[in-house]
Structure prediction request, 934 residues.
Amino acid sequence: MTEIERHEYDVLVIGAGGAGLRAAIEARERGLRVAIVCKSLFGKAHTVMAEGGCAAAMGNVNDNDSWQVHFRDTMRGGKFLNNWRMAELHAKEAPDRVWELEMYGALFDRTSDGRISQRHFGGHTYPRLAHVGDRTGLELLRTMQQRIVALQQDDHAETGDYEARLRVFAECTVTELLTGPSDAPDQPGAIAGALGYWRESGRLVLFSAPAVVLATGGIGKSFQVTSNSWEYTGDGHALALRAGAELIDMEFVQFHPTGMVWPPSVKGILVTEGVRGDGGVLKNSDGKRFMFDYVPDVFKGQYAQSEDEADRWYDDQENNRRTPDLLPRDEVARAINTEVKEGRGSPHGGVYLDIASRMPAEEIKRRLPSMYHQFKELADVDITAEPMEVGPTCHYVMGGIHVDPDTGQSRVPGLFAAGECAGGMHGSNRLGGNSLSDLLVFGRRAGLGAADYVADLDRRPDVRPADVDAAARMTLAPFDPPSARTGGASGADAASGAGANGAGESGAGENPYTLHAELQRMMNDLVGIIRTESEVAEAQRRLGELRTRVRQVFVEGHRQYNPGWHLALDLRNMLVVSEAVASSALLRTESRGGHTREDHPGLDPDWRHRVLVTHLARDGEPDGEHDGGVDPVLPRVAVGPAERAPMREDLLALFDLAELEKYYTPSELAAHPGNTAAPEGGTA
Amino acid sequence: MSYTGTFRIWRGDTDGGALTDFEVEVNEGEVVLDVLHRLQATQAPDLAVRWNCKAGKCGSCSAEINGKPRLLCMTRMSVFEPGDVVTVTPMRTFPVIRDLVTDVSFNYAKAREIPSFTPPAELAPGEYRMAQVDVERSQEFRKCIECYLCQDTCHVVRDHEENKDSFAGPRFLMRVAELEMHPLDVADRVPAAQEEHGLGQCNITKCCTDVCPEGIKITDNALIPMKERVADRRYDPLVWLGRTISRRRG
Ligand SMILES: Cc1cc2nc3c(=O)[nH]c(=O)nc-3n(C[C@H](O)[C@H](O)[C@H](O)COP(=O)(O)OP(=O)(O)OC[C@H]3O[C@@H](n4cnc5c(N)ncnc54)[C@H](O)[C@@H]3O)c2cc1C
Ligand code: SF4
Ligand code: SF4
Ligand code: FES
Prediction:
């Protein structure tokens, strides 16, 4: 076996985005020794790309806002499938988490009285998004990065070592979680550590830690048109599954309505919802503001019915209803899809997003500087003079690791998750701005949860050498010529040195780039924004083929900074996660939020209280059949329904009965305080 | 419109390397990073290049294109003629790891040397009040995506390894300015800017400002005002020069 670098920590945080950094700060402030591991450089995680803002009911711009209103908006946005406890904690705690960032040095845009300014966003009743122009994610991430540095400076002052209690392992990818024996008397199958590799050198690293916080973000790189970066290969989802945890809601994938559509090389890059929040409107090729035709029944009465009313709303929200351009994302994305399909699209297959005719050029540049820059630089379009062309792009996965709302712990002892890779909070559809706040609220809670777990532990599970060997072999396998791979041949020997594999000329083996492109195209076409039973079934069949080919993936060159190898390893995760998405999408025979079935177009109240749970198929389960038991390289997944716990009564009472009746079965509403008036601050 | 373009790319590692020529398809609307990705997919699967957002937001893809420090994802192919040879080399100021990837740990080390935001003790969370005009100065600097192109281009450290110890570079001198101009930061940052972070070594050539993909006026808005604050406490001929220049322009 090749030599492995070893480290020991109390808590290992995998992911240096908003969720990971917030978790690390919390665990470190609780006195634990913490390592943060991330695939790219420190400060580059996907969170930097977030633009519009961070939702928190601070009530700085409209003091009618409160956690109750935020909670209601979140549940509505998710079509009442959300884990209501998470939505409750999120709405209650988000303001404190945002204010905390100011203590770390964040500089949000201000109101005229000097408080944090808040902007409108789709699905939020009041202006609620704390923001910094259209680079809010950068501010959030940089602020927490600088907070980590501040903690390291404290440690330096005390111990002379910046990394005494908090160390960042950047450009280091975790490939497998390691657990203790499943027959351990106290904590069976508990987390013991993780194995990864340095991207730079290709050398393996072993972390021993009794608690791991997964904060690895999303899965968008399995789709062809996406706003997501190469990091979004669903690693955390797949790592958790393989370690024995469950995923939920994997059929729910958010397609953001406004991605760039031209030129081809930038297709999918996000156009922030802030454009619409600040006054931009969607138009079709006839120049018509088509969103007025797409207000669904469940939202009737909550949105403006005429352009005049919609335009008045920007200045007077008490007496007018909001523009349907700001419906939740799933609604807008489907509407755009329909307009294009029916022949009213723009030249490059999108629709128009017009802000140029709505406000002076200088105002646009001040409010949306990076959008101005992005279109100017990448598409030669001046958004202050002409409309943008936009269309749906794969953006966010609502589904994720099934965790306890309060502590973030999965069903694997010691394994925690937060941020985009955790599931439940957003139900079937996430509201814009609710992710950044989610990262802060649940990042902190996962950090706390991990700290408490470690404090209560009598004994730390040992990493088992056989598991380390197996994980190391798996990690190096893509360097083995496929012919030599059966029977658990070791890749370690083949690829331990520079330029070590001599099998390049054999010509056998699959190219990871080709496989990736095929997977992306297939997922986009068959499990994309609009789904049907036959197409999803076809996707499953093709995933089956890809599964065989992914096994044959073969990379050239050596282990030093080799992107082909990195992709080959990511493919293993993308495939498993794609299977979870497809299998879940096939089972849910209704349309809700980020899951639209053309063959089952309506909301079905009997599906509202059911979530789909993905776990590894066990031996004997039909999906688990494989010659000789569970496949260690690409274990199969199984998906089945589970009941969502009924909402606590006081929370249910926050909604009008009439609204709930659109979503719930009559028997579920027996507990509602009755047909009497709406509660305080009702939804009328 | 597609054509076959010629790319000359530095390939190698810590032991050395050389420029390697590639003929590769280029399509309408593409940026340099698209072409490098095509090379990876078709001809050089192990070509090392850093990137993340492909939208100019993360600052990962810094390199030098025809000798100029630039983001690979924000350099459109349309700025070249089809017959041009496009030369891509790693940032010169930092040690090469492999191909276009450099070791930028210098920057992380410098970041740690700057004392962090020091909040006023009397204010609780939620009590911060700042006017938009007052936060805007520091907000400009916080647009920084940490691409380190300014660090790469600054002649104080470019080809001057010996200065790296004493000089934080424009990005981190700007960080000092950002904190100094933060309306609620209570620390005094002026003496350290000069004595510990090397502000005096900057002779306001503005090369850093020229390469900043975020268009931050590093020299005019961060470095010169810091020099002025230093000068308010003691005399420094360069500041005097800086002031004269800005007065003449104004
Ligand atoms: C363009 C864009 C704009 C957005 N705008 C908004 C917005 O305005 N408001 C909002 O609320 N949300 C927005 N979102 C969504 C939001 O930004 C993301 O959901 C959120 O940032 C995810 O944060 P995270 O902490 O979960 O993960 P990330 O920030 O993505 O971080 C994931 C981390 O995990 C690491 N990682 C992954 N796999 C591994 C592995 N195997 N080993 C080691 N490390 C690993 C990565 O390197 C990275 O550091 C936007 C998203 C996009 C793409
Ligand atoms: S202005 Fe100063 S910091 Fe900027 S490049 Fe010139 S010398 Fe370097
Ligand atoms: S100041 Fe500009 S050039 Fe320098 S690191 Fe920041 S974004 Fe890059
Ligand atoms: S890839 Fe993010 S700036 Fe170029």
